[in-house]
Amino acid sequence: MATPISIQVWNPSGKYRVVSTKSMPGTRWIKLLTDQDCRICTEKKTILSVEDIVALIGDKCDGVIGLTEDWGEVLFSALRRAGGTAFSNMAVGYNNVDVSAATKHGIAVGNTPVSLTDPDLCIYLTQTCAEYSKAQVPAHQGVLTETTAELAASLSLAAARRIVEADQFMRAGLYDGWLPHLFVGNLLKGQTVGVIGAGRIGSAYARMMIEGFKMNLIYYDLYQSTRLEKFVTAYGQFLKANGEQPVTWKRAATMEDVLRDADVISLHPVLDKTTYHLINKESLAIMKKEAILVNASRGPVIDEAALVEHLKVNPMFRVALDVFEDEPYMKPGLADQKNAIVVPHIASASKWTREGMATLAALNVLGRIKGYPLWSDPNRVDPFFDENAPPPPACPSIVNGKQLGISASKL
Ligand SMILES: NC(=O)C1=CN([C@@H]2O[C@H](COP(=O)(O)OP(=O)(O)OC[C@H]3O[C@@H](n4cnc5c(N)ncnc54)[C@H](O)[C@@H]3O)[C@@H](O)[C@H]2O)C=CC1
Ligand SMILES: O=C(O)C(=O)CO
């Protein structure tokens, strides 16, 4: 075992033993657990291997909070042997977790689809235009959802206006004076934004690009996003009533239609068998030569080696990536491409979101340890964030709750 070098323990004499495989932001999650007689053990610096985590679980552990590690048979059987019944990913995505292995061992699997109410947005829309405000803009905007969508929007802009290249050029002392051809990029207004996977994050990203830059929408999802369609229709009517060109939407019959039509394409599906290498050599070839591709979902949704080859022969094609196929590594050649922007999986990295995720992950584990029921709607978890009141006695979001027969909360 690579010895963990900086173990930190809170409330050493606590009755319940909880391990957090990574140090998490904020202090509320620590207080919530220690107030309920939990001893918390976390590794502050190292990225732990599966072997390290088994050692940290030891022979007594009630629950674990983890992220990105490979949570399969080895870890779940170790947790079970130590008497554990709870695991929570500190993430909304849980493609790193073998849920059926957890269920087999009677272990609950939590995730963090954080949400909060955003009254300002609703007031703004109500004042702006009655129709527009009725367009089913959700009263609950996800904290993780919006944060991740904002990063995807930032990457779209950075790629469209070549901000990273221009920044590097400045710092290299190459700027001699204003030139008409210097870092000419793409105007977004009036262009088409394509969204693949129009769930919570994909829809929030679409709204930002449509409202912010008056782009038209084409999307592909297995399900119809009625709420998003109504929003774009109403916003289009609002623009028309104000003498502006209305925005439009189209639900594509195939993903290829999106790839063919869109100027900026952002990927937001879950990672599963149907989305693995969704973007590959063939699908890249369909896209416009000057298109922008953004990925803040999961790395393996793109065949990254094929992407590197595509970037080499299509210098006007740009890509902006938050996630990578072999994370934390990049495929050979990617870092050399000027038409690629790469950031280290920071889409959810706003203070509020990360602290909220830590709180939810801790409460998933605590709820299971205490035998609490499941919260009624994992997309409406605002009560768990109220710093002035104790959190509801429920598990905020357990993905295999039904399979384990955990009862639903009446709250
Ligand atoms: N980069 C980051 O830090 C973050 C990444 N994520 C990733 O984003 C993903 C999406 O998150 P949410 O929007 O909250 O999930 P969601 O479940 O609300 O949306 C996913 C959408 O993908 C669609 N989908 C599934 N298979 C598809 C297919 N074959 N083709 C097209 N669409 C398909 C689903 O119907 C659904 O509408 C997460 O699963 C996670 O992997 C989430 C948060 C942060
Ligand atoms: O929540 C997720 O799925 C993440 O990727 C963490 O940022």
UniProtKB/TrEMBL annotation:
Domain called D-isomer specific 2-hydroxyacid dehydrogenase catalytic: residue spans: 44-117
Species annotation: Iris pallida
Pfam families per UniProt: 2-Hacid_dh (PF00389), 2-Hacid_dh_C (PF02826)
PANTHER family reported for this sequence: 2-HYDROXYACID DEHYDROGENASE-RELATED (PTHR10996), GLYOXYLATE REDUCTASE 1 (PTHR10996:SF257)
UniProt cross-references to SUPFAM superfamilies, sorted A to Z: Formate/glycerate dehydrogenase catalytic domain-like, NAD(P)-binding Rossmann-fold domains
GO terms for biological process, alphabetical: oxidative photosynthetic carbon pathway
Protein name as annotated: glycerate dehydrogenase
Example GO molecular function: NAD binding
EC number: 1.1.1.29
D-isomer specific 2-hydroxyacid dehydrogenase NAD-binding domain boundaries: 155-347
Cited PROSITE patterns: D_2_HYDROXYACID_DH_1 (PS00065)
GO cellular component term, pick one: peroxisome
Statement: the UniProt record of this protein carries the keyword NAD: yes
NAD keyword on record: yes
Keywords in alphabetical order: Glycolate pathway, NAD, Oxidoreductase, Peroxisome
Protein family membership: Belongs to the D-isomer specific 2-hydroxyacid dehydrogenase family.
Reactions performed catalytically: (R)-glycerate + NAD(+) = 3-hydroxypyruvate + NADH + H(+)
Location within or outside the cell: Peroxisome
Pathway annotation from the record: Photosynthesis; photorespiration; 3-phospho-D-glycerate from glycine: step 3/4
